[in-house]
Structure formats: C-alpha cells, structure tokens
Design goal:
alpha/beta; Rossmann fold; 6-stranded mixed beta sheet; 3-stranded antiparallel beta sheet; 4 helices; 9 strands; binds inosinic acid
Amino acid sequence: MGLHEDIAEVLFDEATIRERVRQLAHEMERDYAGRDPVLVGMLRGSVYFLVDLTRALGIPHEVDFMAVAAYGTRHAATGAVRLLKDLDEEVTDRHVVLVEDVVDTGLTASYLVRLLRARRPASLAICTLLDKRARRIAPNLPLAYVGFEAPDRFVVGYGLDYRQRYRNLPYIGVLREEVFREGPP
Ligand code: IMP
C-alpha cells in the first residue's frame, strides 16, 4: 500500500505550502535584515519546513537543531519534556527563531522558550508551520510567524508523522480513520 492511499483528505497542498513558506521567508527577511538570526529547528518534525524556509530566506542566517521527547501521549500531555539534543552553538545575544512543525497544546514550545530565554538571546520568536489554536494550554507564546491555522485534527505530511511515517508526503493531510485507529501516535 502506498502512503497516499492512507490519506482521507488533503488540507494544505504542495503549491499552497510552497507559496506560504515563500511569504514567511519574505516577512523574516524584512524583520531580520542585518541581524544574522539563528533558526533553531526542532527535530524531527520541522526539518522539511525548515529546509524549505532556509532556502527561501535571502539574508545571512544560521541553522541549528534541538530535539526533545514529550512524556505521555498527545491525549495525556503532561507538559514534561526531556531534552534529547541541545544546540551546537551558543545563542547568547543572538536573534533566535524557533522553528516548529505544529504548536498544539504549546507545552513543548513553552518549555523550549523557557530554556532558550535562560541563555539570554537578543530576541526570541517562534515560527510554526501549523497553529492548532483551539488546543492551546500554554499562554503567551511568542508566535511571530504562523504558516496556517490548523483544525483540531491529527495531520501528517510535510514533516508531520504518525508513528514515524508520512513525513515525506509533500502535502499536509488527515489520515483515514482505519489507519489512525491502529494505535496512539
Ligand atoms: P504540543 O506540546 O502539544 O504543542 O505538541 C507539539 C508536538 O506534538 C509537535 O511538535 C508534534 O510532534 C506533535 N503533534 C501535535 N499535533 C500533531 C499532528 O496533528 N500530527 C503530528 N504530530 C503532531
């Protein structure tokens, strides 16, 4: 069975994503001109988005990565997050943009914001491809760039996975019920 057959509905197609990423890159070029920002990609979900964003970004910038693991599942979010991989470089006095695939409850982003702010960056902003605002628990996140508002549905593709699959789909879509019912993400 191919990956495409498991998708019930496409929410954001390839051309729509490409155009939106280009727009976000333009906004960042305007906001960060002359500031040499560091784009911090969250492994593994944001990698596809980050790579397209950085290629569209026509100002000097750096790229670094972090990885975290959340305790509990999506349906029993505890807010406890474990750092699996830290940044390779220092971010003190740097302009940091945290690049996320999706901000859902916001608990992961909130943990990362606290951790990064403790290092005294010159500024800190979040750029997320998807914003599931309806599910937000964490208040006051510095969400400066949002690709798309997403509904409260579990989506896959363009970096987002279900049990580590579907990340490579060029679009973002909803899984068919039968596939999703195989178990928790
Ligand atoms: P938060 O801490 O609840 O905001 O969770 C953010 C993380 O949950 C994301 O970085 C994703 O790894 C995961 N996540 C949330 N919603 C989805 C989804 O619809 N598809 C795939 N992963 C998701």
